[in-house]
């Protein structure tokens, strides 16, 4: 199986999206990784295209966008916003920094992280710094601007978004919805195939195990399953409100 990869920074390539696969490559330690999350629409934003002037919320993955849709429905703002994936949190800082470098990062954009990393303002600024090379006063302002465009869901310490959702649902022994039953039927400890030996791949599978396992247990389409899972999770009102508090506040502040 032969795969040919061409690399380029030219935005004009986006016009060929119907003929070629456009992906982002980046170095991680000694490996070169392919980021499927950096889809052409996200890159179009970097190169100056817009979405009919709509405010844009960038997010990490399918689970996060389902949460965002729930929030937007609750505040009656679903039609106002465009949502766009950026993939891993590192890629989010790359996209925001690229937008800032061409003066396209503005007040109607928000980047939402899952909440397991880069929680504090200092951590966000440190990550943004990695995408800037000079150290003059203007660079410092650009870094601050990038960092201020990020927010996150609120999670318990040393947890991740999927594990937190699972633990919230599994803690309720009184409900017997299909989602509750699916949660009870999966292992409380991530089960990773033994043939997966790569450390980074195992870490990725462990992080996404809980919701992925619940989706398989539900036996329905991924989008429908995620919608049902978030509907149940959001029914625990106080937990849900605490979880989305910062993100909701930032969304409501967007002009």
Protein described:
The chain contains eleven helices and six strands. The protein is an alpha/beta fold and 255 residues long. The strands form two sheets. A four-stranded parallel beta sheet has the order 4-3-5-6, with helices on both faces.
Keywords:
globular, four-stranded parallel β-sheet, 6 strands, single chain, two-stranded antiparallel ribbon, 255 residues, alpha/beta
Layout of helices and strands:
Blueprint: E1 24-28, E2 31-35, H1 40-46, E3 56-59, H2 62-74, E4 82-85, H3 89-101, E5 109-113, H4 121-129, H5 137-148, E6 150-152, H6 161-170, H7 178-184, H8 199-207, H9 209-218, H10 222-234, H11 237-252
Parallel strand pairs: 3-4, 3-5, 5-6
Antiparallel strand pairs: 1-2
Helix pairs in contact: 1-3, 2-10, 3-5, 4-5, 7-9, 9-10
Order of helices and strands: EEHEHEHEHHEHHHHHH
List unreliable stretches of 5+ residues: none
Neighbour order of strands in the largest sheet = 4-3-5-6
As a percent range, the share of helical residues equals 40-55%
Intertermini distance: 49 Å
Class derived from helix and strand content: alpha/beta
* Average residue pLDDT: 85
Rg estimate, integer Å? 19 Å
- Main beta-sheet strand count, sense and barrel state: 4 strands, parallel
Number of helices: 11
Overall shape: it is globular
Count of extended strands: 6
Tell me the strand percentage band: 5-15%
């Amino acid at each position: 199986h032969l795969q040919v990869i061409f690399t380029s920074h030219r935005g004009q390539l986006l016009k060929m999206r119907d003929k070629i696969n456009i992906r982002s490559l980046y170095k991680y330690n000694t490996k070169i990784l392919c980021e499927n999350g950096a889809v052409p629409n996200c890159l179009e934003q970097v190169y100056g295209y817009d979405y009919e002037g709509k405010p844009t919320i960038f997010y990490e993955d399918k689970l996060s966008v389902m949460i965002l849709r729930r929030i937007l429905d609750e505040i009656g703002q679903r039609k106002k916003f465009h949502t766009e994936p950026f993939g891993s949190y590192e890629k989010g800082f790359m996209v925001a920094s690229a937008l800032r470098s061409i003066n396209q990062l503005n007040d109607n954009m928000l980047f939402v992280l899952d909440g397991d990393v880069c929680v504090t303002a200092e951590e966000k600024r440190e990550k943004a710094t990695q995408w800037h090379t000079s150290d003059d006063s203007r660079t410092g302002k650009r870094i601050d601007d990038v960092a201020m465009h990020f927010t996150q869901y609120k999670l318990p310490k040393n947890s991740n978004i999927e594990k937190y959702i699972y633990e919230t649902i599994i803690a309720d022994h009184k409900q017997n919805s299909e989602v509750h039953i699916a949660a009870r039927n999966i292992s409380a400890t991530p089960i990773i195939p033994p043939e997966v030996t790569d450390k980074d791949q195992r870490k990725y599978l462990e992080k996404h195990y809980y919701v992925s396992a619940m989706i398989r247990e539900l036996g329905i389409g991924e989008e429908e399953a995620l919608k049902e899972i978030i509907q149940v999770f959001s029914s625990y009102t106080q937990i849900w409100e605490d979880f989305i508090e910062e993100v909701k506040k930032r969304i409501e502040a967007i002009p």
